[in-house]
């Protein structure tokens, strides 16, 4: 959760080739509570460390393994982290260690590291684990002196191991660490919660039930808040927002109103650390008894518990952890004796390094503010993302009476265009409700621009979009029809319905199970075709999340020499203990090198070493329920869009009419780096490849080299500021064409 810690940007650019790990030893450990994605981080540290020529060690069972030494500290190999990416928990183990909190325990740990020449430590855990690592680093010189005086190490050993370098990565499902937008494991935990909520909602609707769900979050309400946004919960209780006196009556009144509106279910989400304004804990059982006593509703309690930590990590967590692991190794390579311990964080879409103890202190400030009942300060310290989530939830969940709404004479229509995408319905729901809260009369257009020119327009109310958040596809309907040929008919419909503004939601108009199948098979390569038109983002992200060996995309041209080099590379890997291969192809990456062609090439060239299977994912990629991220992002971005429309309408309203003549009255809302930005559509013309329907510059292409590293390709890049990796030269034919991104 990003707080006020500012990223320290590097002013110089260093070529990666100059950062050698030769002669260095790196150890990686996981500590504290487990979080999905930790294994992806371990894998990235191991492979990046080996890639740069360093020795890499596992420390099993966290700090306990470091203190105990022996077989708990083992050298890692490239193959030892194969098939680890999709596994939940931490395969190298984690344990609470009281001994490491003592001076004697840290002395034993230092001795074990010096014996193996380990002076670079990568710690994956929460703020307690990272604080312990920093203390260990600060004491390192004194610990070596003690070991030398006791005759346990030589003067040469003390001299060659004189400085300990520490880099941290935060693994915590609660997203409770200041300095990073997301911690490893949070997104996966949200997936588990939403899966349960979606399952519960069907049975709740069948029986007109009220469900009270307790989710993790003893000190931080992030999981409860975002899951409430993602499922459209009726009420949420979090530590950072204690309800005021009288909340019991207010909640029951709202539940009663919802039932009167023929809503068949109520969902109440409670963080395990929820409290009231008198610091009294709010429990699920108390809420259940309250609802039963006051309303007589059939009410059930579900406590999710450790199921939130379980299961396979999401694609986001795999990519996040992989990027952080690579960046952690780069930070260790660049560290000097005077370099303070740092933590690798995610700020916007960039991996950055921040001073470890500044982030820890900021995190502790949040708890201090909460202890002092300064809840507004606590929310602010949590960071902008948390504040935005809270603001959006308040905006969408509390329905105002008509007499409380602001005066507005504007009519606003919402429509979907292009291919259906998960999250569209969440965006529509958010737009409708925010528009109504702003006082506008809201209209829904069915079937995109085709429905618009045919007059398929109707007014839509607050209750009409209830339950839309978790549904896939487009409930309004969407067509790929472009408006160009029907501008006169569209203008007439806008006149008839007096539409003052249009909100258009749409586009430019799942490899896990396959990999699991492959893991049970000896030496098999899967060739997978993904959607995306000419845009290779899906293939690239899917490739990194699934640990693909090669990804072919339109944006990075390839020829037959590249294909042959990739086959040879994979064949050599298959001759070792690697048992499976995964190759992804974006559907329009090359009109001649089709999926069938690539399949036949790999199948022919791999004879005697591996066999091949192919799979075309097709429209299943557009189906299914939206992820927590898509629900949350769609909700927030539509709310922001509707607020912009309100401001623009007011600014453009003169003499009883709306004048929308300037280019800044037709904008695209999108995310750039860390901010949501409104950009005039007219300005986007120069940045767009209209023939292939993609941007001329794709930010994620800068990250493609990451998967080359993790797939054992040799490549060449630039380490730019804030740890950003940029591809600078095309690799030689024998070492080409894999990819990576988030």
Summarize the structure.
The chain is α/β, with parallel strands linked by helices and 742 residues long. The protein has 23 helices and 28 strands.
Helical content stands at 25-40%
Radius of gyration: 27 Å
Q: Strands of the biggest beta sheet: in what spatial order?
A: 4-3-2-5-6-11-12
- By secondary-structure content and strand pairing, the structural class works out as alpha/beta
Q: Could you explain how this protein is built, in words?
A:
- The C terminus is likely disordered.
- The radius of gyration is 27 Å and the shape is globular.
- The strands form eight sheets. A seven-stranded mixed β-sheet has the order 4-3-2-5-6-11-12, with helices on both faces.
- By secondary structure, the protein is α/β, with parallel strands linked by helices.
- Helix 4 crosses helix 11, helix 6 packs across helix 7 and helix 7 packs across helix 21.
- The two termini are 18 Å apart.
- The longest helix has 25 residues.
- Helix 1 links the parallel strand 2 and strand 3.
Annotation keywords:
about 750 residues; alpha/beta; seven-stranded mixed sheet; four-stranded parallel sheet; globular; disordered C terminus
